[in-house]
Design a protein that fits this description.
By secondary structure, the chain is mainly alpha-helical. It has a domain at 24-155. It contains five helices and no strands.
């Protein structure tokens, strides 16, 4: 069974209230639009039938009016020929056709009223469908915005975590540097190591060699 059962239910429906109560608003609004479109198709079909009936009635009325005029002419001709009996018979047939014509014109009036009513219903339904589609679009935008906001929050959360880890690494490096400096100062206070003493002797020997070489070059120039 559909969400709506009658045209009036659709036109008077509060779509927002229905969506607020729905567990799945997106699914609900799709069903509502489908129900409206189905109803619109039905109303348009009835309207098309009514228009076809109007055309058919119009053809029948034209035909009956033509026959009424023919019997009127026959009655006139019969009287002109002194055939009152034939004139009376012609007028009787004319009367019968006029009664039929009266009934057809009543039907025409009813059909025109039906068409007018159906046209109004179509306009209202189309307006309601437009309104509901706008709500569907707004719902989709809200859903997308909520999804984007969630993704941003997740990203921010991850970024903050990464930032915290980076700061932790930075602090750890500073501690390492401080510990290294402390080790250097500690080594200096304990005196020179054996390797340091030999390195200094080697450096002094190199300097003496360079100095002797420089003196020899200067003597040669003299």
């Amino acid at each position: 069974m559909g969400i709506f059962s009658r045209f009036t239910d659709i036109v008077n429906s509060n779509i927002s209230a229905l969506l607020d109560k729905a567990e799945d608003p997106e699914k609900m609004i799709r069903l509502i639009i489908q129900e409206m479109e189905d109803t619109l198709v039905e109303v348009r079909t009835n309207s098309a039938k009514a228009i076809a009936d109007k055309k058919e009635l119009s053809r029948k009325v034209d035909s009956i009016e033509s026959q009424v005029n023919e019997w009127q002419n026959k009655a006139t001709l019969a009287l002109a020929k002194q055939r009152e009996d034939l004139a009376r018979a012609a007028l009787i047939e004319k009367q019968k056709l006029q009664d039929v014509l009266k009934g057809l014109r009543t039907e025409q009036t009813l059909v025109e009223e039906t068409i007018e009513k159906l046209t109004g219903e179509i306009t209202k339904l189309e307006s309601k469908i437009t309104e509901t589609r706008a709500k569907q679009q707004a719902l989709a935008i809200r859903n997308q915005a909520a999804s984007n906001r969630r993704d941003v929050q997740k990203h921010l959360h991850t970024a903050r975590t990464s930032e915290a880890m980076a700061k932790f690494e930075q602090y750890s490096r500073k501690i390492d540097e401080l510990e290294a400096e402390a080790d250097l100062y500690s080594a200096s206070s304990e005196g020179k190591s054996l390797e340091q003493e030999f390195a200094e002797l080697q450096a002094q020997d190199e300097i003496e060699k360079e100095l002797a070489k420089l003196k020899a070059e200067m003597e040669n120039k003299q």
